[in-house]
Design goal:
CATH topology of the largest domain: Penicillin binding protein transpeptidase fold
CATH architecture of the largest domain: Orthogonal Bundle
Structural class: mainly alpha
CATH class of the largest domain: Mainly Alpha
CATH superfamily of the largest domain: Biosynthetic peptidoglycan transglycosylase-like
Oligomer: single chain
Helix content: 55-70%
Radius of gyration: 23 Å
Number of strands: 2
Order of helices and strands: HHEHHHHHEHHHHH
Largest sheet: 2 strands, parallel
């Protein structure tokens, strides 16, 4: 009996030591400072998806194309921040108020869902960790988030996040998502499209931007209306720009047989200043 207790005690000590080492290494590894200039390769989330496909015998490839922040629609940047982390520019990696609310919900549901994550936390999870929601992973995530915020600017963090976030089954990054869902580049996304893509981030494999989900419809409308209230979107100007684009396409087709007047760009510009 004494020997059994001794063995159990040693086993507990070893498990505790392993946990300390396993968690502690994230204070120095990986080298998050390298992300200042270097684009990340295949992320932990991408590898996780590939492993699942391999197990199920699914032949599929990751879709991911890197684009700098300057080639991403400003509507998309603002929509994602509104949807995922409205205090992104002011916090230091953690939104403690959001975390408290998420914890209260978890307690009520008696289920650990680990909500309230900031964009910085989600980036860390995508780059280095896994979808697991256990407390140990959250500790690792917290350490890496703190380090990320110490070494990178907010602009770089959002640029990285928009290039690695999952936005469909096997679709990672906003450029791949824009091409996959809308057949256009990330720079060309409209305010409505940006709000819709931002709305699927909580569960991008379940929700589709062009599906019939009531959640996506309601959430994207909520994001869009916030953008309107904040002056990010001027609906009348947005409609004129879209109409002008449609007319340009029609005119381009008709030029083969008939010369048509081109919309006066000055009129469109003057409306944007009203």
């Amino acid at each position: 009996m004494k020997n059994l207790k001794k063995i159990l005690f040693i086993a507990l000590i070893l498990v505790a030591a392993y946990s300390v080492v396993d968690i502690g290494r994230y204070f120095i590894y990986p080298n998050v400072a390298s992300l200042k200039k270097i684009k990340p390769g295949k992320t932990a989330f991408m590898e996780y998806r590939e492993d699942l496909w391999l197990e199920k015998g699914i032949k599929k490839k990751i879709k991911n194309t890197w684009v700098p922040l300057s080639r991403i629609s400003p509507y998309l940047v603002k929509a994602v921040i509104i949807a995922e982390d409205d205090k992104f520019w002011s916090h230091e990696g953690f939104d403690f108020e959001a975390m408290q609310k998420a914890l209260e919900k978890d307690i009520k549901k008696k289920k650990f869902q680990a909500g309230g994550s900031t964009i910085s936390q989600q980036l860390v999870k995508n780059l280095y960790l896994s979808p697991s929601k256990n407390p140990v992973r959250k500790i690792k995530e917290a350490i890496l988030t703190w380090r990320l915020e110490q070494h990178l600017t907010k602009r770089r963090i959002i640029e990285l996040y928009l290039n690695v976030a999952e936005l469909g089954d096997g679709v990672f990054g906003i450029e791949a998502a824009a091409l996959n869902h809308y057949g256009k580049h990330a720079a060309e996304l409209t305010a409505r499209e940006a709000a819709t893509l931002a709305s699927i981030l909580p569960n991008p494999r379940r929700y589709k931007p062009n599906g019939n989900s009531r959640y996506v419809e309601n959430q994207s409308e909520r994001i869009y209306q916030i953008m309107v209230r904040r002056g990010i979107v001027i609906p009348e100007f947005d409609e004129v720009i879209n109409e002008t684009k449609d007319e340009d396409v029609i005119d381009g087709d008709d030029q083969k047989t008939e010369e048509k007047p081109v919309p006066n760009k000055n009129n469109v510009d003057s409306m944007s200043n009203q």
